[in-house]
Design goal:
Elements (H helix, E strand, L loop, with lengths): L6 E5 H5 L4 H10 L3 H18 L5 H12 L3 H12 L4 H5 L1 H6 L4 E8 H8 L9 E4 L1 E3 L5 E4 L10 H8 L6 E5 L2 H8 L5 E5 L6 H6 L3 E2 L2 H7 L14 E4 L5 H9 L3 E4 L6 H8 L4 E4 L7 H5 L6 E4 L9 H5 L4 E3 L6 H16 L2 H9 L17 E5 L3 H12 L3 E5 L11 E2 L3 H7 L2 E4 L13 H6 L4 E5 L8 H9 L3 E6 L23 E3 L8 H21 L20 E8 L4 H11 L4 E8 L3 E8 L5 H8 L4 E7 L1
Parallel strand pairs: 1-2, 1-6, 2-3, 6-7, 7-8, 9-10, 9-11, 11-12, 12-13, 14-15, 14-17, 15-16, 17-18, 18-19, 19-20
Antiparallel strand pairs: 4-5, 21-23, 21-24, 22-23
Helix pairs in contact: 2-3, 2-5, 3-4, 5-8, 9-10, 13-23, 17-19
């Protein structure tokens, strides 16, 4: 906590609050009526003119009060509505207001009757609220305001603050031109243009300090904030057209978010990754060890898909970067596409449709069969393979599977002892394996030799799993009756790059542009799942769902510092951490340790005592990979 005794002066409307109080008063009075919409629009116009210095404050207030035709009875409802609209970073820093209440003022061209009941809940003293007061008639109608108060005049805030004769430095925080005038007029020594709720061009152009949140101001002034690092300084880079809900979730958290529709190659990503704290990708962007060498601020990577083979997980682990994916979110989407393609292929549907478009009526049952009773061979029996197994069986198929990992068979599915056995008995072969290097060309020319003549073949897993040249040869020889391919060894970076494959133009071959998981439902679910996992990790240190760090599900952090320490899995680290905490007389409120083969992850909650030397010693513990402190 700083030893300085600065005085903080906050504007109320659009600074302490997300909104303008008189706008809410209008909404309470007129609800959603057509007249109310017109009146609100005019009130907002008058407010902006006053805030930008283009209309005298007294005239702006007078016209707004006349438009409202409000009554004392409306004030209670306005207060209750406004309590729900306090600025997010103000809510997060409620403790700051209570701890420094002797040195915090609210100044506003608004009205005490509305302001005091709201700010009192944050520890602000009623006598520290500097604002106008309403005038009422004998029926309780609001007919004006105290025009003798200097706050309804131009330069009113300057005069009011000067009249306080404050000792020490005064800091003004506000969004309007009248707030900037307090610096220009010499009433305060610092002014922060507050842009969390509204950004006024005339104010931004004049202000030397711009604050996207209260966290930023407190961090800049070395006060303890609700967070150990301002959220607006956390840069998020989202590639490959990640769902807009993920973008909104990160933006709502207060992060700076940049989005790009396409993938980036290694050199492009090296350039973009500098200064990025959170990276979001899908399947086309490769995060290599070389890229990570330039990612000095990177804390987390989200693969907004199932696979993580496009990320160098070992390199991430050794840099303390947590990687999260969505292992189940698009399962149903992939399964439905696979089933649809199986049915289309066994019925020669696409070929029939093509002939119809050419004017040829070819009504024939030749080589057109039902899937009922056919043998479905699943290569890979994870979340997608097992769900496809259940639904295919419900449609009458006989299901067989092969997986390198011992899996429990669901329903009547039968496990094969080898890939060769599975391929030899299946009428339909569908691939659902991960992208590990050992799976490259898992289905090659030899594997195709094992398959039945007339087999149906599907790959909705990874492009490099299949030898495309061998697949093409077997399609040409009619060994394979039909195929559906959704993934390819090389895929275009974005929708503008041409697609080229030797499978193009072949009969009874369905080619899709890696859309197995590309449904609105799946992408929305993935966006929510991965974004929230990353935010939870950044805010609390919880690694549950991480694919490379030891998984810990942590309780919520309350009234404490949380020390996160990632280290190589060697003995004695925990003892060293505790000895350092003991040396600096810290009380441990909770401690959690989890390890895997290479890493150890220690979470320690300590009391509110904080010391920079303590941090230095924790960082210097041998074999430390990453250290972070949260509060």
């Amino acid at each position: 906590m700083t030893e300085n005794q600065e005085t903080f002066i906050f504007d109320f409307d659009s600074t302490f609050m997300k909104v303008e109080a008189l706008d809410v008063l209008c909404e309470v009075i007129y609800k959603d009526s057509a007249a109310g919409v017109q009146i609100l629009s005019e009130i907002q116009r008058l407010t902006d003119l006053g805030m930008e210095g283009k209309l005298s404050l007294k005239e702006s207030l007078t016209q707004r009060i006349q438009l409202l035709q409000a009554n004392r009875d409306h004030i209670g409802a306005v207060i209750e509505e406004l309590k729900k609209k306090v600025t997010a970073s103000v809510i997060r820093n409620r403790t700051f207001f209570k701890q420094h209440s002797d040195h915090i003022y609210i100044i506003s061209n608004g009205f005490k009757e509305i302001i005091i009941p709201i700010v009192q809940e944050y520890g602000i003293k009623p006598e520290h609220v500097l604002a106008n007061t309403f005038k009422f008639d004998h029926d309780g109608n609001i007919i004006g305001f105290d025009e003798k108060d200097e706050l309804c005049e131009n330069q009113g805030k300057v005069k009011k603050i000067k009249s306080l004769n404050l000792k020490g430095e005064a800091i003004m925080i506000g969004d309007g031109y009248t707030d900037y005038e307090t610096l220009e007029g010499g009433a305060v020594s610092q002014f922060f243009a507050f842009t969390e709720n509204v950004s006024r061009k005339i104010v931004i152009e004049k202000a030397s300090q711009i604050a996207p949140s209260l966290d930023e101001i407190l961090y800049e002034l070395s006060y303890k904030a609700s967070v150990s690092y301002p959220k607006n300084r956390i840069n998020v880079l989202l590639l490959e057209n990640i769902h807009e809900d993920a973008v909104k979730i990160f933006e709502h958290e207060g992060y700076n978010v940049e989005t790009l529709k396409g993938a980036l190659n290694e050199e492009e990503l090296i350039e973009k990754i500098k200064g990025v704290s959170i990276l979001g990708i899908r399947s086309k962007t490769n995060v290599t060890a070389k890229v990570l060498e330039h990612a000095k601020k990177l804390h987390a990577i989200g693969t907004f898909c199932i696979g993580t083979n496009q990320v160098d997980l070992n390199a991430c682990s050794m840099k303390g970067i947590s990687v999260f994916n969505a292992p189940y979110s698009n399962t149903r989407s992939v399964v439905e596409l696979a089933l649809g393609q199986i049915i289309m292929l066994v019925r020669n549907t696409f070929e029939k449709s093509k002939l119809m478009h050419a004017g040829v009526w070819d009504k024939s049952a030749t080589n057109s069969v039902e899937i009922r009773g056919k043998k479905l061979g699943l290569v890979g029996y994870g979340s997608i393979g097992s769900q496809l197994s259940i639904i295919a069986e419900a449609l009458g198929m006989k299901v067989y599977f092969y997986d390198a990992v011992d899996r429990l068979a669901l329903g009547n599915a039968k496990k094969c002892s080898s890939l060769k056995e599975l391929l030899a008995l299946s009428d339909v072969v569908s691939l659902h394996v991960d992208g590990r290097a050992s799976n490259k060309n898992l289905i090659n020319a030899e594997a195709f030799e094992y398959m039945k003549p007339g087999v149906i073949f599907l790959n909705l897993s990874r492009g490099h799993v299949v030898d495309i040249e061998a697949l093409s040869a077997n399609l040409k020889s009619c060994k394979i009756h039909g195929a559906a391919v959704d993934v390819f060894p090389y895929e275009p970076k974005d929708n503008t790059e041409p697609f080229v494959s030797e499978l193009q133009g072949m009969p009874n071959v369905i080619l899709t542009p890696h859309i197995g998981g590309s449904t609105e439902e799946a992408q929305e679910d993935i966006g929510h799942y991965v974004a929230n996992k990353i935010i939870n990790y950044i805010n609390t240190g919880t690694t549950y769902g991480s694919v490379n760090l030891p998984e810990i599900q942590l309780p919520e952090l309350q009234s404490a510092h949380r020390i996160m320490h990632i280290h190589e899995n060697v003995k004695g680290i925990l003892a060293q951490i505790n000895n350092i905490l003991l040396e600096y007389d810290n009380n441990i409120l909770g401690q959690y340790l989890k390890t895997n083969e290479t890493l150890g992850y220690v979470i320690t909650d300590i009391d509110n005592f904080h010391n920079k030397e303590l941090e230095k010693k924790l960082k210097k513990i041998p074999n430390t990979i990453r250290y972070r402190i949260l509060y």
